[in-house]
Amino acid sequence: MAAELSPHHRRLAQQKREAIITAATELFLDRGYDGTSLARIAESAGVSKSTLFKQFPTKAALFEAIVTESWQRDAADDDARPRTGDLRSGLTAIGHRYADLVGRPGMAALFRIVIAELPRFPELGRMQFQLGKLPYFTSVRRYLEAEHEAGNAEVPDAESAANQFLGMIANYVLWPRMLLTDWNPAASDIHEAVEEAVRTMLARYAPARRPDPKPEG
């Protein structure tokens, strides 16, 4: 049985992993996925080839790690979902986390790599969708379903509603960056874009208010 790594060696291994992922992202963007070798990535990351191959035996495995770690900066599991009971608060929390996530330059770089290499390497697009966007989207859909089941929202089609909500935010925070390298909206503008998306969702999906009962007599 292999000996367990000490805390120091675990930190060292994590640092090397982060250096590899950073170097690979930069090289994929600069030279293309096909034009970047694992040996070149190891050199750029300042690690030995054996260290890189031990963690990532193929470029596909390395790209998979890039996608997964990029999206997991905001965990997409059930623990990350807001508690049900306050639709405005829940949507606001989700919206601001999503804006922070897709607004990072690293996320824009990831999308650029996928778009540039998609004709030759369609599997990169599948990885980006299945390991990144889909788990995140599923988490938002499940939150909306939970609010609907609890009677806190009227969301008969949670899949469509999740698409609408995330799309409103990404259309302001992420997609302009694909074409405009100097796109860098102020934090206040991003905040307002999220709040406007929340208000739109509430107008569409908040439960209809029941009229107050008429007084007797």
From TrEMBL:
InterPro entries: Homeodomain-like_sf (IPR009057), HTH-type_TetR-like_transc_reg (IPR050109), HTH_TetR (IPR001647), Tet_transcr_reg_TetR-rel_C_sf (IPR036271), TetR_C_Proteobacteria (IPR039536). Keywords: DNA-binding. Residues 37-56 bind DNA. Residues 14-74 form the HTH tetR-type domain. SUPFAM superfamilies: Homeodomain-like, Tetracyclin repressor-like, C-terminal domain. This is TetR/AcrR family transcriptional regulator. It comes from Streptomyces griseoincarnatus. The lineage of its organism: Bacteria, Bacillati, Actinomycetota, Actinomycetes, Kitasatosporales.
